[in-house]
Amino acid sequence: MEPVSALMRWTPLSFGKHMGKSIPQVMFADPGWFFYLYQKGAFDAWYSTESNAVYHRSRSIKVPQPVDTGDERKIVEHIFLWGTFRRVQLVPESEPQHHGAGTVVRKRVIDMSMPWSMNGGYDKLGGQLMISGLKGIIFGDPSYKMTKKRCEEFFNDHDNFDF
Fold first, then answer.
1. Does the residue 4 lie in any domain?
2. CA 70, CA 137: separation in Å to the nearest integer?
3. What is the rounded CA–CA span in Å between residue 73 and residue 84?
4. Residue 99 CA: distances (Å) to CA of 79, 92, 105, 114, 158
5. Contact yes or no for 8/57 (Cβ under 8 A)
6. I need a surface site. Which of 14, 91, 110, 127 has the fewest CB within 10 A?
């Protein structure tokens, strides 16, 4: 469980292809790049607090649940086809898991690391599909514009995460 803390101040990156962006901005642009570098230990002491927070938060994004509608609790399906990530979707908890050509990983949270962790390599398309699916679920629009402010506010709001 991550402790509740004051709002984090996000430091612009001083290296790599996302130089000048904050880590929350990278997560809504190229999450595979972040996960790859995180696993390699590339975020030095300067970024360790921020990278650790984003790593844990991005793997435990809370699923919006129906409120007072009598609808059933929703869970997340991370769907893969031939080993590559294809989409993330919400389904009723009691719905039987689909069995077919693909692989379905069910969780109670949205895990942004799934496209990268399932195939162990960089998956640009999987990352883009994860981001659009996440934005559709959380913001109601897969094309929702993620400004610097919106990215950082999302990762600063502890209510968005299920620790």
1. no
2. 19
3. 27
4. 11, 16, 11, 19, 35
5. no
6. 14
Q: Give per-residue pLDDT as tens, 11-62.
A: 999 999 999 999 999 999 999 999 999 999 999 888 999 999 999 999 999 9
What is the pTM assigned to this prediction? Answer: 0.90
How many distinct helices (H) and strands (E) make up the chain? 6, 5
Tell me if 16 is assigned to some domain: no
Domain extent, residue 142, equals 23-160
The reply to whether 9 falls in a domain is no
Q: What is the pLDDT of residues 93-142, one digit of tens each?
A: 999 987 777 899 999 999 999 999 877 677 889 999 999 999 999 999 99
Count the domains in the chain: 1
Distances (CA, A) of 89 to 15, 92, 133, 138, 154: 34, 10, 7, 11, 19
51 residue type, one letter: S
Handedness of CA 99, 114, 137, 93 (dihedral sign): positive
